[in-house]
Amino acid sequence: MAIASCAPCHEAIVRSYAATGMGRSVSRPTEEARGKGKHSGQEWEVASKAGKLTHRVGGETRSPEWAVGSGHEGKSYIWRVGDSFFQSPLAWYSRRGAWDLSPGYAAGATIDFLRPITADCLGCHTGESRAVKGTLNRYEGGDPIPVPGIHCARCHGNAEAHIRDGRRGNIVNPARLAARERDSVCEQCHLSGATRVPLPGKSFGDFRPGMALEQVFSVYLPVAESGFKVVSHAEQLAQSACAKGAGEKLWCGSCHDAHREPAEAGRWFRERCVGCHAQTRPHGDDCAGCHMPRTSARDGGHTAFTDHRIRKPGGAVAKEGPVKGLRAWREPALEWRARGLGLAYAGVGELERAYGLLRGVAEDGEVQSALGLIFLRSGKGAEAVAVLERAAKAEPGNSTRRLNLAAALLAAGQRGRAAEEARQAMAIEPRMQDAYVLMAEIEPGRAAYWRERFEGLMRK
Length: 460
Prior knowledge:
Elements lengths: L10 H7 L8 E2 L7 E5 L2 E8 L2 E6 L2 E3 L3 E3 L5 E8 L2 E4 L2 E4 L4 E4 L13 E2 L2 H7 L27 H4 L3 H5 L14 H12 L4 E4 L18 E6 L10 H7 L1 H6 L5 H4 L9 H12 L10 H5 L2 E3 L7 E3 L19 E3 L8 H11 L3 H8 L6 H13 L3 H14 L4 H13 L3 H14 L4 H10 L4 H13 L1
Antiparallel strand pairs: 1-6, 2-3, 3-4, 4-5, 6-7, 7-8, 7-9, 8-11, 9-10, 12-13, 13-16, 14-15
Helix pairs in contact: 11-12, 11-13, 12-13, 13-14, 13-15, 14-15, 15-16, 15-17, 16-17, 17-18
């Protein structure tokens, strides 16, 4: 359901919502200021060519097709080759008025245009995208992002019945849901944790407003605090004295109006605070400025984001530290708990813990994939082949499962079969760089051929 279908009854809301960050979450690139810089000896530049924004890194230039982000904090950029989406390593940071590296690139020795844009990424940043099932970053041609901005259905569910008969009872109002289902509406995008694990046969896009998040996937958090993260607003709010004191009454909608951005943000949020703290004597007009300061975020590049822990001014901030364990934000059904936690540990590289949990659960494609990679990384090639064959058979159109099987076959000394599976991965996803890297290992005498073949596909 596009946002336009709500306009006949809710014209004012739709008009104001379209101007919010959610309504402008993805757009076509515009000509921002020019910029240039250097990283690890690589020169990069942002310019305009024939009216198009261009990003150059070294001798490679790309023209972004989409800008991700409202521009309030900044924008990342997507470029496309064929039906595959990739992220540009260059991003615009609005508050600094400058170009710099996209989040996650700064730590690497080199930067390139090869980071895949997955369906899970676009799931939170677009109203609708048309990903090809079983691939990392392929999208159906023509109009792969038919609804760029986040639209009404993201929070209110399918509105077909409501459009036919506009009664309150046939549309989801998050504020009227039970606390777990209400919070899940926001948490689908604003709760990241250390990793997320879907239930068997589910994908993140299966969530619908009115459901509990754990009916589709579970979020796993570090047992010990490990620093400020951009999209973990829900985690931070739960740590606040306000949330602990209010029980289940305080939620995102207590302070935020998703339909409009306040003209005077300081006054707006002060009124929200005073609504609960009527007996408190405010020391100024900007409660959030002191108690929710903008804080540097470890996964947000070079900008800052609002700290939702609602701390006393000058309060200590948890420092970055190692992950000592994981716990579920909310536990899934009992039958899925060992599976979920095991896959979560596998996702963060804790293989021994993962294996201890997964070896006793019923196998499905994701469990088989995790066990296979655990065996592979432990040097048990034959065991890895056996379990990864079952994973690939369960979903033969999955490029990653095919490639993992190819790697296991190579480790087991079966080069011929490894090459066959790697080619199957390429057939499913022709611009999957890891497949060409693996083929170069399988056929070292043709390494230059596979490198050139991949580079040729990326130029088309």
